[in-house]
């Protein structure tokens, strides 16, 4: 994924914080799904999907990572991080991650989708909002966002960065707030 001033132009606009946080997390789930592949499934009968014959007994995996980057599902610069696509007026306004929109399925879809989705979504929103509320974040040694190596790898189960990110938190609340952490 490349960074450019144009890509980053959404940062200069103002949005209400809660819809914007949701849009940022949707965009993160789209480009960087924590589980890049679904749990393997086995076809219990011969069937046809999208013109392909799936013989009984086949093992099937859903490539969640590739679906989130598919230009047919995401025609507007699919490889760019653009949360505004989910905001009011954006091309994908109303698209969510709960398995109802097949272009964005970080928790899978259908009756065997992730059973921990509600907990997972709450935790991701809570932790992200808390660390953003509690600290201003910077990069060390004069690094700029465009210097970050965004390459990813998977251990087969989860997706992770090749180069761990190093970020510097700067407290932004009154000192007593941090005392019992
Ligand atoms: C952000 C957090 C999470 C993400 C992105 C995620 C993603 C997924 C995905 C993609 C699947 C495969 C769905 C499919 O094959 O269609 C899955 C399955 C599953 N997840 Fe999660 N998950 C998350 C959190 C959790 C949590 C917190 C729990 C438990 C407390 C959980 C428990 C499970 C279980 C048990 C399955 C297997 C469901 C089945 O095969 O019927 N997940 N998850």
From TrEMBL:
So which domain of life are we looking at? Eukaryota
Give a Pfam family name: p450
Query: Which residues of this UniProt protein bind heme?
Result: 114
> Which cofactor does this sequence's record say it needs?
heme
Sorted alphabetically, the keyword list is: Heme, Iron, Metal-binding, Monooxygenase, NADP, Oxidoreductase
Q: Which InterPro entries match?
A: Cyt_P450, Cyt_P450_CS, Cyt_P450_E_grp-I, Cyt_P450_sf
Q: Which GO molecular-function terms appear in the entry? A: heme binding; iron ion binding; monooxygenase activity; oxidoreductase activity, acting on paired donors, with incorporation or reduction of molecular oxygen
Q: Which PANTHER family match?
A: CYTOCHROME P450 98A9, FLAVONOID 3'-MONOOXYGENASE
Would you identify the family this protein belongs to, as annotated? Belongs to the cytochrome P450 family.
Identification of the protein by name: Flavonoid 3'-monooxygenase
């Amino acid at each position: 994924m490349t960074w450019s001033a144009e890509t980053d132009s959404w940062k200069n606009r103002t949005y209400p914080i809660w819809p914007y946080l949701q849009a940022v997390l949707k965009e993160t789930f789209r480009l960087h799904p924590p589980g890049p592949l679904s749990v393997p499934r086995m076809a219990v009968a011969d069937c046809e999907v999208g013109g392909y014959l799936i013989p009984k007994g086949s093992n099937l995996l859903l490539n969640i990572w590739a679906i989130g980057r598919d230009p047919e599902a995401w025609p507007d610069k699919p490889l760019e991080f653009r949360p505004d696509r989910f905001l009011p007026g954006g091309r994908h306004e109303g698209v969510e991650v709960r398995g109802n929109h097949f272009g964005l399925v970080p928790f899978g879809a259908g009756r065997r989708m992730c059973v921990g989705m509600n907990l997972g979504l709450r935790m991701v929103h809570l932790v992200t909002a808390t660390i953003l509320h509690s600290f201003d974040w910077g990069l060390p040694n004069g690094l700029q966002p465009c210097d970050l190596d965004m390459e990813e790898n998977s251990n087969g189960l989860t997706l992770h960065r090749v180069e761990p990110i190093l970020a510097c938190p700067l407290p932004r609340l009154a000192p007593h707030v941090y005392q019992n952490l």
